[in-house]
Structures are given as structure tokens and as C-alpha cells.
Specification:
Blueprint lengths: L2 E6 L2 E7 L5 E7 L16 H21 L16 H10 L2 H32 L8 H24 L2 H21 L6 H5 L9 H18 L5 H10 L1 H17 L3 H17 L5 H14 L2 H9 L8 E4 L2 E6 L2 E4 L11
Antiparallel strand pairs: 1-2, 2-3, 4-5, 5-6
């Protein structure tokens, strides 16, 4: 909410524009679940766990940013909470309590998504068996229903005021990354004129998941409704794995065929991103600079000659190299350069 999360390696930064207009940047570490695990980091397997990693981190950062906009306090007297309510508040105030709540939220979110975008279209398509025996037609209708429900959902939430601002920050995120990847200095002017389309976007991933699932179900057919339902659930990791590998390939490939296949997802991004205002871009830049040395990146890949300061992130603290030694970053530096 009113901010952006940027991740680079194991480190991530959350930049938030507070109600008083000050930009707050929090930098922390979030090692990937698959890091150091060869089996889990194998192609077509890593996608499932990377998706879960992203979902958990997204929930954490959303909760953090929402804390700056707590509007529950009112001038009118509040009813004294009961014993059970007090115990619940105390429990959720602990790290263990928040972790449990986060886990429940993630599980519920996944279950809701699977039910709405996978199981509901399948159940609706099976009703056609009363009027036709064509499995091809039934599977085709199921695929069309998936896309239709997905698009209707995207259109519906895009009408919400808070979501519209989230989409503007989403646009600022894409513009920042495109600015750097095209060799431009990271400033508000250059970011504003950069594209808000990006091949590695999560929106594209979701659409690819839909398409991959449709294709797989075209070839894997069963007559039993119960077995068909079970297969769709069991194939979810496979669908996620294939989709993840395609997004990785699309982000690094200039192949015309890959670009053509990526086009629908990038077109859909015009719905999930909006043109940001300069203040939003400032937040995005602060989040990027907290975890990524874009000057060194441009010097290495585009032959620029920006002056850079040797830094290293050690034990949760930014350190700057002075005369061959590592010293803490001076207190006077900008907040976005600190953890």
C-alpha cells in the first residue's frame, strides 16, 4: 500500500510513502526457500517454490506497508475488548502469531484461487456432458471459462480505488527496472518516460499459468469427474513449473517466437499497471537503490562512468569500504541507502 517492494538476491527493500509524505525504506533479508537445495532448485521444480516464496514475502511486505495507514483509531470511545480478544491481540503481536496468521492467509489465498480459476470452470464445463459427448468441446469450453473468469476478476478489482493506486505503483516498479535495463540514469525524468511493460511480470506469469493448464488438459483427459478434479489439482505444480521456466526464458531471450508468445501477457499488463505520478516514482527509486547498485550495473553493461562507492551488506548492515576496511555507513546518508 502506497509503496513498492524490490528484491535483489536474498535482500529486499520496501519503500513506503507515509501519510506525511515522508519516504520510509526498510531493507531486510529473505533467503529463498530453495537456496542451497539442488533438488528444489532444479528446472520445472523451482518454479513452485519460488512462487510460494514470492507469495509469502508479498504478504509480509503488504502487512508492513499497511501499518502506516492504520485508521482504526477514532475520536469516539471504543468498547473495552474482552478477555479472548485481548489474548488474540497479544498472540498476534508476537512473531509466532504473525507467522501463523500469515500461513493461514497464504493457504486460504491459494485455495480460493484454485477454486475460482481452476475448479469452478471445470465443474461448469462438465455440465455440457448432458448435451454432448465431445471431450474436445468440453475442454475448450473449460479453457474459455478460465480466461473469462480471470479477465472479469481483473476488471472488477481494477475499479477499486486502492487497487488503482497499487497499479500505479506497479507501473512505477516496471518503469524503474526498464530504465536501468535500457542503460538510462535512474532518475524521475528517465523513469517516467520508460515503458511499463516487462516480460518478467507476475501478471504475465498468471496468464501463462492459465494457458499452460488449458494445453495440458487438452492432452490429459479422463471420463471420471472426480478423477478429472484430482488431476487438475495434482497438475498445479507442473503448470506452475512450466510457466515459471517460460517467464525466465522470456526475460532473457530476444527470440521472435518467445516475444510473440509473451505479447498477450504484456498486453494484459496495461490493465494491471497504470502510469504513476512523479512521487510514486521517487518511492520506487528509493526501493531500488536500497538493494541494487544501478551505477555499477550501468558501468559494467553500458560503459558509463558513474562514481560508485564500494559497499557490502554484512549481517544485516550496510558497510562501506574505507582504505581496505569495512566501516558502517555514515549516519547522514539517505535513508534509502540503509537497511
Amino acid at each position: 500500500m502506497e509503496g513498492i517492494m524490490m528484491k535483489n538476491g536474498d535482500r529486499y527493500a520496501v519503500g513506503v510513502r507515509r501519510p506525511d509524505k515522508e519516504i520510509i525504506v526498510k531493507t531486510s533479508e529473505s533467503p529463498s526457500f530453495i537456496k542451497g537445495k539442488k533438488i528444489l532448485s532444479a528446472p520445472f521444480i523451482r518454479g513452485v517454490f519460488s512462487f510460494i516464496d514470492s507469495l509469502v514475502l508479498g504478504m509480509k511486505t503488504l502487512t508492513y506497508s499497511a501499518g502506516f495507514f492504520d485508521t482504526e483509531e477514532e475520536e469516539t470511545p471504543q468498547k473495552e475488548p474482552g478477555k479472548l480478544e485481548k489474548k488474540l491481540d497479544d498472540f498476534l503481536g508476537t512473531k509466532k502469531g504473525m507467522d501463523i496468521l500469515l500461513g493461514i492467509t497464504v493457504v486460504f489465498s491459494l485455495a480460493f484461487s484454485v477454486a475460482l480459476f481452476m475448479l469452478l470452470p471445470y465443474w461448469a464445463s462438465t455440465l455440457l456432458r448432458k448435451v454432448t459427448d465431445s471431450t474436445t468441446l468440453i475442454v475448450t469450453v473449460e479453457g474459455l471459462l478460465k480466461i473469462t473468469i480471470f479477465m472479469c476478476y481483473m476488471v472488477a478489482i481494477s475499479r477499486m480505488k486502492d487497487i488503482q493506486r497499487v497499479y500505479m505503483y506497479h507501473g512505477a516498479e516496471h518503469k524503474c527496472i526498464n530504465c536501468i535495463e535500457h542503460g538510462l540514469e535512474l532518475n524521475v525524468e528517465n523513469v517516467m518516460k520508460s515503458s511499463r511493460e516487462h516480460k518478467r511480470c507476475g501478471t504475465s506469469f498468471l496468464l501463462i499459468v492459465m494457458i499452460v493448464s488449458i494445453v495440458l488438459h487438452m492432452f490429459i483427459r479422463v471420463d471420471s469427474k472426480a478423477l478429472g478434479l484430482l488431476i487438475r489439482i495434482l497438475l498445479l505444480p507442473v503448470v506452475s513449473g512450466i510457466s515459471y521456466e517460460f517467464i525466465r526464458l522470456a526475460g532473457s531471450s530476444e527470440n521472435k517466437c518467445v516475444a510473440m508468445l509473451s505479447r498477450p501477457g504484456m498486453m494484459l499488463q496495461h490493465m494491471t499497471t497504470r502510469e504513476p505520478d512523479p512521487e510514486m516514482v521517487e518511492v520506487a527509486i528509493a526501493a531500488v537503490e536500497a538493494v541494487f547498485d544501478w551505477k555499477s550495473f550501468l558501468n559494467k553493461n553500458f560503459g558509463t562512468s558513474y562514481e560508485t562507492e564500494a559497499r557490502e551488506y554484512v549481517c544485516g548492515e550496510w558497510l562501506v569500504k574505507e582504505g581496505g576496511r569495512l566501516e558502517p555507513v555514515p549516519e547522514g546518508e539517505a535513508a534509502e541507502s540503509r537497511p
